[in-house]
Amino acid sequence: MAYKIRKDLAYRRIAGEVYIVDAAKSEMRELNGPAALIWEGLAAGKKGEAIASAIAEEFETDAATARADLAAFTEELLAARLIEKL
Amino acid sequence: MAGRPVACPAPKASIPVLGLELAGLSLFFKPDHAGIISIFKRRYGRFSGRGSRGYTFSVSAAAGRQTPFKPSVVLEGSRLELARGDFRAVLDMGRRSGELRAAPNEQCLDAFLRSLTSFFLNRAGGFMLHSAGLVKDGKAYIFLGKSGAGKSTLSKLAASRPGVELISDEINLLRREKGRWRVHGSPFWGEMRADGRPGSWPLGGILLMSKFPEHRIKPCTVPEALRLLLRCSVNFEAGPGTSERALSAAAALLAGAEFRRLYFSKKDNSFLELV
Fold first, then answer.
1. Which residues of chain B are within 8 Å of residue A9 when distances are taken between CB atoms?
2. Where are the domains of chain B?
3. What's the number of domains chain A is made of?
4. Closest CA of chain B from A43, distance in Å
5. Domain B127-273 is of which CATH architecture?
6. Residue B245: closest CA among chain A residues belongs to which residue?
7. pTM attached to this predicted model
8. How far apart are CA B57 and CA B47, in angstroms?
């Protein structure tokens, strides 16, 4: 399954963390660690396997754990309506 | 022999154009009657100026109510429209000219100017910040706080200190110029006071305000600084572009200025020694 970030969100990496501004809801979220990596992977249009590989490499974890983390966080982003299915 | 008197039209009193300089933004107003210009002068006369490449508005008075209270700011192509219940302005950004129809009162003109200034500052990589601002030892300090955080109290305390000048107790204007942040004089004060003066000062630091029984100053984290900075940023234009520019400017400000948390008490102004 592929996903895209909602068009009306603004985001930026500042001091190592990704900050997402949802102006419509006047909300700001901050992502760090693997969450920031996943977000930036989605923003770059990367496929799930590529994002999971990047997580495994960056955080020195096995591929299965990285895929599970990716799936869980993607569900969170969907539930929060920050991303949409393509 | 004298001829018959010829009826001449009475000379029409010319209404002067008013020029304003706000945080590097040059504005010219050509009103169609003197009443509205007197309001502009009374409220913003200290900021009069004549920049070289300004935006010119033909101004006419129109009745209107403040509702809806929050102005809308929409840019489509080169057409900028700013509107509220009691004003409507359309500006051709390419030609740098437009029209303003506004209720002839200070609240209305102030809302219009705040909307317009925040639009341009957001595009210039700057900020209009809901904050208190003061100058001490030649540098400007910005005190960020939500409503009720004590901006007015802090301003009154600071104003009584010799050598300290208030920039504004409500709205401060920041721009990055040649890689350095400067705070510009602001005509936007609390309770519609006409105060402030033109000028700009190098930014000395930004302080997040917290009421406390005694004065203290401590470092603060990036997330808390960013959260309050964005919350205090005044923007009326909706859309991701505005948020992206604000985030980008915030990143630059966080990188280029010292943010700290100020715990202050209203007992006296000795917190200024910590700044």
1. 240, 243
2. 18-123, 127-273
3. 1
4. 14
5. Alpha-Beta Complex (3.90)
6. A10
7. 0.88
8. 17
Is residue A54 in some structural domain? Answer: yes
Task: State the alpha helices, DSSP H only, in B15-105.
Answer: 34-44
What's residue B11's pLDDT?
47
- pLDDT score recorded for residue B21: 95
A24 inside domain:
no
Report how far residue B172's alpha carbon sits from residue B165's, in angstroms, rounded to the nearest whole number: 13
B248 in contact with A at a CB cutoff of 8 Å? yes
Which residues from chain A sit within 8 angstroms of residue B230, using beta carbons?
21, 28
In tens, the pLDDT along A39-75 reads 999 999 999 999 999 999 999 999 999 999 999 999 9
Residues of chain A with C-beta less than 8 angstroms from the C-beta of B251: 12, 14
- CA-wise closest residue to B140 among B4, B275, B3: B275
Identify the residue among A9, A26, A27, A28 best suited for mutation to test binding to B, counting B beta carbons within 10 A and taking the highest.
Answer: A28
Name chain B contacts of A17, Cβ cutoff 8 Å: 222-223
Q: According to the model, what pLDDT value does residue B63 have?
A: 84
C-alpha atoms less than 13 angstroms from C-alpha of B198 in its C-beta half-sphere: 15
Query: What's the pLDDT tens digit per position in B20-49?
Result: 999 999 999 998 877 888 888 889 999 998
The residue segments making up the domain with residue A65 are 32-85
Tokens of B207: 């302080």
Q: Is it true that the peptide bond before B11 is cis, omega within 30 degrees of 0? A: no
Q: Is A23 a member of any domain?
A: no
Half-sphere exposure in the Cβ direction for B122 (13 Å, CA): 24
Q: Do A28 and B246 touch (CB under 8 A)?
A: no
